[in-house]
Each structure stands twice: as structure tokens, then as C-alpha cells.
Amino acid sequence: MTYYSGVDGSLDFQGLPVAKVRDWQLSMNTDALEVTTLAAMDREFTTGLRSASGSCTVLYYNDAPVPLMEQVLQQGAQTSSIGRLKLKYGPKYFEFEAVFTGAGTGVVVGDVMQVAVQFQKSGPFIATAL
Amino acid sequence: MNSIPFPPLVPTSRQYTPGVYAEERFTAQNGAVTRLRYGSRRFNSTLDLAFSNITDDNAALIVQHYVDVMSGDNNATFTSVTDGTSVNLAVWLQEATAGLYWKYTEPPAVDSVQPGRSTVRVSFVGELEGN
Known about the structure:
The complex is a heterodimer of chains A (130) and B (131). Chain A is mainly β. Chain A has one helix and seven strands, in the order E-E-E-E-H-E-E-E. Chain A has one helix at 66-73; strands spanning 9-13, 16-17, 21-34, 45-59, 83-89, 92-106, 114-129. Chain A has a seven-stranded antiparallel sheet. In chain A, strand 5 and strand 6 form a beta hairpin. Chain A is elongated. Chain B has two helices and nine strands, in the order βββββαβαβββ. Chain B has helices at residues 56-70, 87-94; strands spanning 2-5, 13-17, 20-27, 33-43, 45-55, 74-77, 100-104, 109-114, 117-128. In chain B, strands 2, 5, 7, 8 and 9 form a five-stranded antiparallel sheet that branches. In chain B, strands 1-6 form a two-stranded parallel sheet. The longest helix of chain B is centred in the middle third of the chain and has 15 residues, at 56-70. The N and C termini of chain B lie close together (11 Å). Chain A binds chain B through residues 33-40, 46, 48-49, and chain B through 10-14, 52-54, 83-85, 113-114, 117.
């Protein structure tokens, strides 16, 4: 039996580890496709399209979040509209391609500058180890 | 004329109108109405059906039924289409006693929802046969 916590977490972007990741989150969903007919008294469903989206927060340390921000802005060193992410916890991981939909940052007195990035999975998972 | 049964599918939505009578209506300037009635039987009843998120194989059955009915002097009959309604209303929907024959108004519209699933809409008109 193994618990995983923040110390086990990390994140790769385009195959390279991202430094100073504070957190990452991933939400996975499957649509419920209604197949209820007129003769039914209870709603019935089948599985529909799958999707996943998430976010991560990276401390602004030595330009660590810059590649992610460039992916959102579609400028700089990024070469594709799609980026590859690998969200890891211990030996387990989710690996997928994603569109980066947002990044937010700010400077606050008494706090370390950080960048929050949102992403939307594109296509199926490339690999998972759950 | 051959009667070809519709595939055994239950629709997601269903709309029926019982048709009209052959008549001509004249309205005088004072508002008085005169109707000339040309027949005692109603015709052009309509039945619109939707089958949401059915399997592609079932959608293919509907398309095949359209081809079978409309490629010859045929008409459609229904059984499962009236599931979920009373026997009395089902008699009307099937037009079993009115002497009307169900024909497709237009080809089935097949919307692909996702791999293996489609939504199909079909429309029928109940015609009096002019023999």
C-alpha cells in the first residue's frame, strides 16, 4: 500500500522536466449520451466522448514557466500548437497532448511569483500508468 | 402495393398530425365563410420521428427501409414506433383504419454523433391512394 503526496509529483513538458512545479491537477470526463426512448420510464445513457482538462502552477524561477507561457501565447520557442505533457506521481503518470488554453500570473508583496497554466487534452492518452 | 414494416425501433420523439379534408374555403367581405367539400376522407396526415443516439447499424436499417419503400410502389407500416402510447392513440398513429398509406416525405436525415452512434430523423405522410 502506497500513498502519494506532493513530494512524488512532477511534470514534463515536451519530454523535459519542468522545474519548480507547485501543483498539477487533471480532471477526466466521459459524456453521458442519452438513449432514452418513448416507451421508457427511466432515462438511459451510453458512454459518449471522453475529455480531460487540467492545470498546473509553476514558480517563476529561472524562466521555468516560460515554455508553458509561450505555448499559450503561441510565440517564442514553441513549434506546434499542441504540446505534450506528462503528469507524474511516483512511478505513475498520465501522458497526453494538450492545447494550452490559459496562463495567469502576477506579483504580490511577500509572495513568490508563480504562473498558473490551464490545458485541455487533445486526442487519447498517449500512455498512462495508474 | 406492398407494406414494408419499419425496423423494430422505438423513437425518441414523435409528432403526429391527423391530416386535412379536401375542401375550398371562401370568405365573403362580411366574414361569412362558405366551404366546398370535395371528399369525406382525410389525407396528408404526418408522422415525424427522431431516433437519438442509436447505433449506426440501426441507422442503416432505417436507410434501408427508406430504399425498400420508396424504390417501388410500397408503403411503410409501424409497430414499435407507437410503443409508449395507448392502444387507442396507436390506432391513429398507424392509420390502420383510415385507408391512408405511409410514405416517406423526404429521405432520412442521419446525423453522426460519434463513432458508432447516429441520430436519425424521418418524416412520413399518410396518402390516400388514387386507384
